[in-house]
Design brief:
Distance between the termini: 61 Å
Structural class: alpha/beta
Number of helices: 20
Strand content: 5-15%
Strand order of the largest sheet: 3-2-1-4-5-6-7
Largest sheet: 7 strands, parallel
Helix content: 40-55%
Shape: globular
């Protein structure tokens, strides 16, 4: 797909999340993508839910189905995330170049998120989310993920979807032409305080207190309980210690409150820490204002359980810690654990180990080298600015192309994407083969 030298690529960035002052990760990522792309491309940013944002150099608005069709017709390239392609399956039948942002392995995340539901519901929901992702893998001309480890995971799923084939391989044996790494990022501008948001502002937290910040939502795959118990141990010797949870209520009204948030608040109450040493912001902080909360903290924490979601996660809240120069204490097992160790950014502890976590917090927070660690964190964070992490996306959009297997077989491939009932060809085949195996087992002779 050649582009005349005088015309910039028209890129439509679509998010299914709410675009507004208070945004969660998917909306933040879409917003930052549009900001980075607008230097090289003609950009429009839309939400299929709600938008109240404004930008001086590109339009931002919400769309319904009819409006989205118009925008897709306008675009040379569509960049999307989440459920967009399954919600609007007609996108898969267009000739628009499609970029799937698969930085969030939603099917792994749901294994923890849905634990309170029945087994039948969890199975159906997991199957549906897997299908949502398979459709993206089948249709996308280019894909982005969050880390090299995550890329290995997605390559396996791409192989299962037959996207690793002679055409895509011969075009680029590394397959970077099909799937590359574009992590979550941090602002290119240095973190600068404009006000005190926690110290001397939140009742019960003074200007001289030592603040640990939990920099995001409280979801079922995280472990705030071990952290609260560790703080309960530490306050006996460090009465100035404060733990602040930055956000409990998700800004997207379609995302329900999770059990872990309620469990964390209940435990803090039970231990007599709420309002004295543990504090919950029950709303959500404005994206542009979060810097004032981060710079009022002395330590950033991220604690989680040991499971498959952890192994392939990329904790976006840790990026904010890097930007703000906060030493970090985190649970072992995810992508950032090795980076924290390798670059001396704080401490890593085993999952669910209250004693180890308390010791690590005490060592990092009250160390004479804390400022030195903070400088290392800030220096390391500069390698994750949005202009750097999104470079693969920018380069692709400057010279967009259909994927090499779709270039040869555009019409047949688009026809194979998804039936009107919303089932992928791979899932249909799987169900047929399961029925066949069941039939064979029933007629097989008993030995």
């Amino acid at each position: 797909m050649d582009e005349s030298a005088s015309q910039r690529t028209r890129v439509l960035v679509v998010t299914g999340d709410v675009l507004g002052p208070r945004m969660a990760g998917p909306a933040i990522r879409a917003w930052e993508m549009a900001k980075v792309l607008q230097d090289e491309c003609e950009v429009r940013l839309v939400s299929t839910q709600r938008s109240t944002l404004h930008h001086d150099t590109f339009p931002v608005f919400e769309v319904d189905t009819a409006t989205l069709r118009q925008q897709v017709d306008w675009a040379d390239v569509l960049v999307f995330q989440g459920y967009t392609l399954s919600t609007f399956p007609w996108i898969g039948r267009t000739d628009t170049v499609v970029v799937a942002d698969i930085y969030d392995p939603m099917h792994l995340e749901y294994l923890e998120q849905g634990k309170d539901e029945s087994d039948r519901t969890r199975l159906k929901r997991t199957e549906y989310i897997s299908e949502v992702l398979n459709v993206q893998l089948e249709r996308a001309d280019f894909m982005l993920c969050a880390s090299e480890k995550q890329r290995d995971f997605w390559l396996g799923q791409l192989a299962g979807a037959s996207r690793i084939n002679p055409l895509t391989y011969d075009a680029d044996p590394s397959l970077r032409r099909l799937l590359d790494v574009a992590p979550f990022g941090v602002s290119d501008a240095p973190a600068t305080r404009t006000r005190h948001a926690i110290k001397g502002t939140v009742p019960g937290i003074g200007l001289d207190d030592q603040v640990i910040i939990w920099g995001g939502g409280v979801y079922n795959w995280f472990d705030p309980l071990t952290l609260i118990r560790a703080v309960a141990m530490l306050v006996e010797h460090h009465p100035c210690l404060r733990l602040y949870f930055l956000g409990v209520k998700h800004p997207n009204p379609n995302v329900p409150a999770m059990r872990m948030a309620a469990d964390a608040m209940h435990l803090a109450d039970e231990l007599g820490l709420t309002g004295s040493h543990v504090f919950f912001n029950t709303d959500w902080v404005d994206y542009e204002d979060r810097v004032n909360y981060l710079l009022d903290a002395d330590l950033g924490v991220s604690t989680h359980f040991e499971h498959i979601e952890t192994a392939f996660s990329f904790r976006t809240r840790i990026l904010d810690y890097l930007w703000a120069g906060l030493p970090i204490v985190a649970t072992d097992g995810d992508t950032f654990a090795s980076l924290i160790r390798e670059h001396g950014l704080g401490a890593v502890v085993p999952p669910k180990d209250v004693d180890a976590l308390a010791a690590a917090i005490e060592e990092v927070l009250f160390s004479e080298e804390r400022e030195e660690v903070g400088e290392r964190v800030r220096d390391f964070g500069r390698s994750f600015t949005w202009s750097r992490t999104l470079r693969p996306l920018v380069e692709f959009c400057k010279d967009p192309r259909w994927a090499d297997d779709r270039r040869l077989m555009r019409a047949p491939v688009s026809g194979q994407l998804r039936r009107s009932a919303g089932r992928s060809r791979h899932t249909a085949f799987w169900r047929w083969s399961e029925r066949l195996r069941t039939f064979v087992r029933r007629i097989r002779p008993i030995r």
